[in-house]
Amino acid sequence: MDAKLDQLRARFSGIDIIVTSTVSDEGLDELKRYIAKGQTYCFLGSSGVGKSSLINKLLGEETIKTGDISRTTGRGKHTTTNREMYVLKGGGIVIDNPGMREVGMADAGPGVDAFFDEITALAAQCKFTDCTHTHEPGCAILAAVRSGDLDEERYTNYLSLKKETEYHEMNDTEKRDKDRQFGKFLKKAKKDLRNFGHKDY
Fold first, then answer.
1. Distance between CA 76 and CA 50 in Å, rounded?
2. Rounded to 5, what percent of the chain is helix, strand, coil?
3. Contacts of 182 (CB under 8 A, 6+ apart)
């Protein structure tokens, strides 16, 4: 747990991180102090990670229906289907959201660059102005990853978000073309796998 916390703090400096447990009640008092009277807070996360259970703990009663823990995934079963707002005794307001199965990025180009400001600064030092930061010689970002000056996971997240943002900024025709190209790629990949005798294809 300490190692994971260190990773989070290194990647998200300046953001408060509160470790909580609905089993041991660890961190609940700290979280309650964080929730100010008259302010509204949204609980976001994948289905079954415990958002509703955590809000129940903050409310001090089993107000929200929760599911049993799945033996296969180790997560709770999806139960929240609509957004619901709850007022805590201290006056803070929390919103329980349905679990997210997919997250999209829209109009986030400048935000990505601002969040990864150290990578943006490195990009200005690349040899080529159209550098994709994936394979080009003279790429300052790749050099920083290789030297250990830039966290590899943070670099990977940056590339993923940039690609997703670029996709959302495409017009419908460009998206259809890209999806068709990807479909052709998958078809060819499956054919190649069959030719190599892969039993699943």
1. 7
2. 45, 10, 45
3. none
Residue 101 token pair: 């199965």
Long-range contacts of 172-181 (CB under 8 A, 24+ apart): none
* Domains located in the chain, CATH noted: 2-96 (no CATH), 109-195 (1.10.40.50)
Handedness of CA 68, 70, 74, 76 (dihedral sign): negative
* Cα distance between residue 47 and residue 57, in whole Å: 18
Task: Indicate the length of the chain as a whole number.
Answer: 201
Residue 167 pLDDT class (50, 70, 90 cuts): low
Sign of CA dihedral 21, 2, 15, 116: negative
pLDDT tens, 6-19? 888 887 777 888 88
Tens digits of residue pLDDT in 75-116: 444 455 567 888 888 888 888 877 655 455 555 556 677 778
Q: Determine which helix (DSSP H) or strand (DSSP E) holds 31, and give its type and residue range.
A: helix 28-34
Residue 20 near residue 26 (C-beta atoms within 8 A): yes
Pull the structure tokens for residue 91: 């006056």
Type of residue found at 180: R
